[in-house]
Amino acid sequence: MRTGGTGRTGAPRSRPRPVAHPVLVSTVTRDVLDHFGKCPRCGYPAQESETVRTFQRGFTERIRFRTCGLPCGWTETESDGIRSQWR
Predict the structure, then answer these.
(1) What per-residue confidence (pLDDT) applies to 26?
(2) Coil, strand, or helix at residue 73?
């Protein structure tokens, strides 16, 4: 069945919208000097660093990396995900 001379039948299909990926603006890494944790494997003092990634429109993501001060191989990563922090 033809409708209105358009050559199509039924309602027009909607196109999927493209996914907008966040644009990285800056990355800052620093040592956490007040971290007094110990390695859960060997008990040696652990080291911690934090990376803060800032995206376009004020979104931020904090990632904390913990490692053993000795080469026992223990590591741990913790991320709070991407959060909105409007300025």
Answers:
(1) 93
(2) coil
